[in-house]
Amino acid sequence: MTKPIFVLNGPNLNLLGEREPHVYGSETLSDIHDGLKKLAIELGRSIDFRQSNHEGELIDWLHEARQNAEAVILNAGGYSHTSISLRDAVAALTIPVIEVHLSNIYAREPFRRHSYLTEVVRGTIAGFGGEGYSLALRAAVSLGGNSRG
Ligand code: CA2
Q1: Starting from the edge strand earliest in sequence, which strands make up the sheet with 5-9, in order?
Q2: Can you tell me the distance from the alpha carbon of 116 to that of 17, in angstroms, rounded to the nearest whole number?
Q3: Nearest Cα to 55, choosing from 21, 84, 92?
Q4: pTM of the entire structure?
Q5: Counting atoms of ligand 1 from 1, which one is nearest the CA of 75?
Q6: Known catalytic residue: 63?
Q7: pLDDT, tens digit (0-9, with 9 covering 90-100), for 60-117
Q8: Could you say which of 13, 14, 73, 105 would form a disulfide bridge with 112 (CB–CB 3.0 to 4.6 Å)?
Q9: Which positions ≥6 away from 138 have C-beta within 8 Å?
């Protein structure tokens, strides 16, 4: 059995579906989790899906992923635009990390157009709502734990 794919979600993503559906869609994080679990089974994988509003907890989970995950799908929320520490934790991983954003951050306010993670992840998927997580899972599985594949 392969290691799980960690799906890590940052601050405020627990509020999805409650406000701003025009920006983030109407799915809740729990809806996204349910859909992704089913897709993971189809693809012969398991996911470990988590959310935290705390930067340090996200960093601890990235450290845990070094030993315990095949790949990481990461929506770091607002920390994507602010956290050098999160970037350093991603840079320390040798497994593939795929950055996901529900919204197209490149078409939004100037402060959202830069992510500190972009240069240290395998790739970024932005602007496809919850579907972006499914695209990221398919990419993670086809990379098969190979960060350069
Ligand atoms: O588009 C994305 O996935 C984001 O990572 C979502 C973050 C935002 O800070 C990033 O710039 C882009 C926000 C998470 C959700 O925030 C909500 C706030 C109010 C109501 C519902 C969600």
Answers
A1: 47-51, 5-9, 71-75, 97-101, 123-126
A2: 26
A3: 84
A4: 0.96
A5: 5
A6: no
A7: 999 999 999 999 999 999 999 999 999 999 999 999 999 999 999 999 999 999 999 9
A8: 105
A9: 39, 43
